[in-house]
Amino acid sequence: MLSGVVFRSSRREKRETPFIRPRVTPTQLAKVDFTELVPEPNELLGQAAVLQLESFENLAKAVAGAPTLASKEGLSAAAGVALKKHHALIAELRRDGVEPVEVMAPFTPELDRFREKIAGAEWSELLLGIHVTSGMLDDFFARLAAGLPHDRGARVRDILSEAGAAEVLSAELQRAIAEDPGLADRLALWGRSLVGDTLLVARNALRAAEPEGRRDEDVEPVFTELIAEHTRRMDALGLTA
Amino acid sequence: MLSGVVFRSSRREKRETPFIRPRVTPTQLAKVDFTELVPEPNELLGQAAVLQLESFENLAKAVAGAPTLASKEGLSAAAGVALKKHHALIAELRRDGVEPVEVMAPFTPELDRFREKIAGAEWSELLLGIHVTSGMLDDFFARLAAGLPHDRGARVRDILSEAGAAEVLSAELQRAIAEDPGLADRLALWGRSLVGDTLLVARNALRAAEPEGRRDEDVEPVFTELIAEHTRRMDALGLTA
Q1: Do the Cβ atoms of B178 and B118 come closer than 8 Å?
Q2: Assigned architecture for domain B33-236
Q3: Which CATH class is domain A32-236?
């Protein structure tokens, strides 16, 4: 159960309903309206580029704090993938004649704060923070990319869909949880506390495109899917979502 | 002048002689004995791999502290190159059937301390710390690689010779120095203080190969070249070496 997730809805009656695991499989969910919510292409790419940079910074921090060289190897490879995605998105912006710094700058303060928040208080919280938020947001931005013009959309999905940190983070977290009996409970709470902020980042990504009410209605099926994936991700760690 | 550089020599009369800018160009210096000082190949690769990982961690720290997105872009690309070198050296070890963690582990404590030391007290010191020490050590290890068996030596030189952080660090430092009139003097002192520690790391890389006295004698021409390059690097920043 995902009690504790507060998602600001413009429709009052929805406010009391916590997100629950969907009874339908993701593929059954309609995507008709969602692609209409896609923000202006360069804004989408700018935000996605900043998010990859923030992931890189957090993964580099995880490398620096890693207890063994073996952990450093896996985490640094994952940091390299986030970096590659960041630079590929920047290159995609330049390809369109856009100066990346200009489109990224407006999103940087909010996403800097988000990065600091998800870094947590200890190494395992940092790892879960990256795992939970990148898991949800990489998926979200890949879905948004479906609304980009054909060629560009395909290129951006290719960039974002490269397997990143999930596997190594999951393995490191499983090891940490196995070694410390009290950790699972703390991490379960921590993981739950990240979902609301992450959905807010996702929702804000759509800001410029649609009026509030319309947006919430259209985006809900997608958020339901994101949360279902989050639950599966937590389950895989043996953590209650 | 490089007063302040203390290099432990086994020959007493050498101890009072500071390193000076050489009167000969690097190509005139003989390399005959130096390749005999090359440590056991896997030890060499292990140390070089740890040094690239330390460079990556420091460059990632520089990214995190960078004042602008433009600075982050250049520095993160440089961090990516250090990471690529680290993983290529690890792959080179695996290719030889060696577990990289085992050969890297003995060098990690000393090089961790070295990384922390060169990180300095502020962002510009961190940048100069990476610039000065990577400049000298990348060059040093590329020279050592010349003493590896033919194919392997060529592969390792290729890995290490890829242009890394020098250009972006130099540009960022020039900008920082131009903006802060007092910075040049502080950085000149800081740069000078790094040389002795860096030469010690280089010298320790040879530990297993040769008796002390022989080693110091053979390695001196190489150190003279490293210091000449260091002086040119500092000159390019308008800093006294």
Answers
A1: no
A2: Up-down Bundle (1.20)
A3: mainly alpha
